[in-house]
Amino acid sequence: MRRAAFALVLLLAALPTGVRGQRPALEVVLPAAGALGEEGPAVRATNVLGERKVRDLLRNGFPARLHFRVELWTTGGTFNSRLRATEWDVVLRRDALRDRFDAVRVAGDSVTQLGSFDQFNDVVAELERPYRPRITGEKGRGRQYYNVTLELEMMSVSDLDEVERWLRGEFRPAVRGKRNPGTALGRGARTLLVRLLGGESRTIETRSRTFRP
Prior knowledge:
Blueprint: H1 2-14, E1 25-29, E2 42-46, H2 52-59, E3 64-74, E4 81-95, E5 100-107, E6 110-117, H3 120-127, E7 144-154, H4 160-167, H5 172-176, H6 184-197, E8 203-207
Antiparallel strand pairs: 1-2, 3-4, 3-7, 4-5, 5-6, 7-8
């Protein structure tokens, strides 16, 4: 166990620091005026995997979890009021044996295979496609807006086995955080990853313009 922990420290220390390119961003586009009460917004994340540290961790076998949350708010009165919310996850990992990147989307109890890709740029292009969650504006509730957040998490070594189980259909513990606390190695790995990535830069938030369904 100690040898494994030491090897992990050496791996993380050896990763190139890289340079920052374009900053990660979230886009939220409202549906056409006539569909505001029938369709949800189109949500798109860009440059989330652009940082070299993140790419290096992915290529070295650490899965990435992108957690999206969309909240519908109404304005007016003294305080804004949240009407409802929805959330989903996108999990990406590299299969070293096949040298391919696998990605899936988990929304509630629905799992959608986004594909298996030879090239990193191809999986990035797939992840940056707009996604329209099922959260529509409410008629008769005044002016409203969507607030969208995205959290990027590099999953620790202790999660890798659960990711394999998740890819075979046992996805809930790995995706939703209901996992065993893990060994000291797993907890130490998570601490190192958080420090390496810089936790404060891994959450992105944006909001739409206000609208009336």
